[in-house]
Amino acid sequence: MAQEDNAQEAAPDTPGMHTDGAGGARRRPLRVRHVEETVEVAVPVRTAYNQWTQFKTFPRFSTVVHAVEQVRPAVTVWTIGYGPLRHRFAVETVEQDPDAYLAWRGLEQKPSHQGEVEFRPTGSGGTAITVRMLLEPRGAARILTRSSRATRLTARLVRGELMNFKRFIEGLGQEGGAWRGTIRNGRVQHEHPEPPRSRVAQWPVG
Hints:
- The chain is α+β, with helices and mostly antiparallel strands and 206 residues long.
- It has helices spanning 45-52, 140-146, 148-172; strands spanning 2-4, 16-19, 25-28, 33-41, 65-72, 75-80, 87-97, 101-106, 112-121, 127-136, 182-184, 187-189.
- Strands 1, 4, 5, 6, 7, 8, 9, 10, 11 and 12 form a ten-stranded antiparallel sheet that branches. Strands 2-3 form a two-stranded antiparallel ribbon.
- The longest helix has 25 residues, at 148-172.
């Protein structure tokens, strides 16, 4: 279901974590103007999440993603398009919580975008996957994406890709790999941080 907020000129939020009034941490969902679609898949949350994190497998089920390259721990380069048309752009994963949440932002100047995907268990033992996307166009493209027709087209594309993923993971029955790390503000969080390095030179002995 596509949703469009009336406050079109408000500054968009970046997906991530913030502190609520009670002092606890909670996620801040996209607002202002975004597309939101949900699909239920008949595999457990861990399986759905693990497969989703295998970005390089997206071309195996997607109708628009042709290639994904991992260039840094939190940065990937995607090639998308229809027919002979291709568009290549970098994406940074800014937040990632295993089995729960992943948020990203495009690194292009224009047009740019941001999005998030949530994974929630269902009563039947499956997974509800929700994708939200916010486009941040510039110039003439900004006027185009304000139209409800453009929003509906984007929503239809997101819905189609989610259905493709559903058929793919349900056909596999199990994940083909996984990345179980956590990312905060675009930085991978290491389970055991490296100890601070001494400024004293360590000379070889013997």
